[in-house]
């Protein structure tokens, strides 16, 4: 088992990661009858894309003996209606280092091939932008 999810009522859930016992809450967003006091489930999906990309880049960077610590991502999730679903995820990745073209290409390709990116439905537009330190 990976996790346990408990419905707490009032459109809120608590998820517990079994191996670490870390917990996260989710709330329905304000535009869908919720309080919006925590990430919504679809927020987590969008955030998972950026987190996965940075993690996979970190693995590749370690293999290359490159430090990408303090790189960060800004995530924007765009919903669509009928059916209500994620229509687009925009991720801007701000890299904390200067790199040559070869290193940039390797790390960017690694990010785009992350498991979350490959698991999202092809109808979800993934707009990915890398901003490298000058």
Can you characterise this structure?
The chain has 2 domains: 3-32, no CATH class; 41-132, GMP Synthetase, Chain A, domain 3. It contains 3 helices and 6 strands; from the N terminus they run E-E-E-H-E-E-H-H-E. The chain has helices at 41-63, 101-112, 115-119; strands spanning 3-9, 12-17, 23-27, 72-80, 85-94, 125-131. A 3-stranded antiparallel beta sheet has the order 1-2-3, with no helix packed on it. Strand 4 (72-80) and strand 5 form a beta hairpin. The chain is globular, with a radius of gyration of 17 Å.
Could you provide a short overview of the structure?
This protein is α+β, with helices and mostly antiparallel strands and about 130 residues long. The protein is about 30% helix and about 35% strand.
**Poorly predicted residue ranges:** none
Strand fraction band?
Answer: 25-35%
What does the average pLDDT come to?
A: 97
Radius of gyration: 17 Å
Helices, by number, come to: 3
Number of domains: 2
Largest sheet properties: 3 strands, antiparallel
CATH class of the largest domain: Alpha Beta
